[in-house]
Amino acid sequence: MTNVHIRIINPNTTASMTAAIHQSALRQAAASTTITTTQPDAGPVSIESHFDEAISAVGVAEEVLKGEREGGIDAYVVACFGDPGLLAARELTRAPVIGIAEAAFHLATLVSTRFSIVTTLGRTGIIAEHLLEQYGFRHHCRRIRAAEIPVLDLEHHPDAAFTRIVEECCRARDEDGIGAIVLGCGGMANLTADISREVGLPVVEGVSAALKLAESLVSLGLHTSKHGDLDYPRPKSFTGKFAALSDLQLPTSR
Predict the structure, then answer these.
(1) What Pfam families does the record tag this protein with (predicted)?
(2) Considering the chain, what percentage of its residues have pLDDT values greater than 90?
C-alpha cells in the first residue's frame, strides 16, 4: 500500500480521549499509514444524548472542512459510536468517511452470525437501535447492553469501568446466544484486547474497524460518490454564527 493519511475525528472535546484514540489507532495502522487525530474547538466533553450528538455533528463537519483545506487526507474516521454528522461529512469530501458504529457492525457480521452491543449508558441504546435499523444490521444484533457508566469514567475511573464492561460482556456471552461483542463507545478503543481475553469471544471495537476499512477503501481507489445525495452541498448563504460557511469553496463538479 502506498502512503495513506487518515484523519480521525473525535467528535467530543476531551483532549485526553482524543489522545487515547490516537494511540489505539497507531497500534492498528499499517506501516504506510499516517494517523492524525483531531477534535472540535467547541462542543460537548462527552456524547451521551441526542442533544450532544446534534451539537457535535457541527464540529465533525468543521473538522472535515479543515482537513479539506489542509489537503492530503485520504480518508476520515468519525470516532463516536453514534456516528454523528456522518452523511453531512461525506457530502464535504471525496475521501471515504467511516463511522465507527457502521464499521464495527460490518466487521462483527464477518466473524459471527449474531452479536450484542455493550455500551456505556442505557439511555444511548436507542441511538444504537436507530443505527442498526439505518444500516440494515438489526437482525444481526441480539441485544444492546449498558454497563451504566458515564463516558468520562473510562478515563477518570478506568479500573472500575473496565470491570463493569467485562461483567456486562460476560452476561452477553452467557445469555444472548451470540458469537461476538461490539463495544459501543470510541473511548473503549484501548480496551479491546483485554476484554476479549477476559470474555473469550471476538470483540469488535469501532475505531480499529473503521481505520482498517478506511485503509482498504483507499487501497482500492474507492471514494465517496458525488452522484446523488452525497454530492457537495449547493452553495448558499448562512446567517448568524454560521455566516462564515457562506464562503465555502467546495468543488461543484463530479
Answers:
(1) Asp_Glu_race (PF01177)
(2) 83
Average pLDDT over every residue of 218-223: 97
Q: Using CA atoms, how far apart are residues 38 and 20, in angstroms rounded to an integer?
A: 12
List the one residue out of 117, 120, 96 whose CA is nearest residue 108.
117
Closest CA to 140 of 118, 174, 117, 120: 117
Q: Does residue 188 contact residue 149 with C-beta atoms inside 8 Å? A: no
Rounded to an integer, the average pLDDT of 198-219 is 96
What is the sign of the dihedral through the CA atoms of 192, 211, 220 and 84? positive
Residue 75 CA to residue 25 CA, distance in Å, equals: 14
C-alpha dihedral sign at 229, 232, 233, 234: negative
Residue 237 CB contacts under 8 Å (≥ 6 apart), including other chains: 246
Q: Is the pLDDT of residue 249 over 90?
A: no
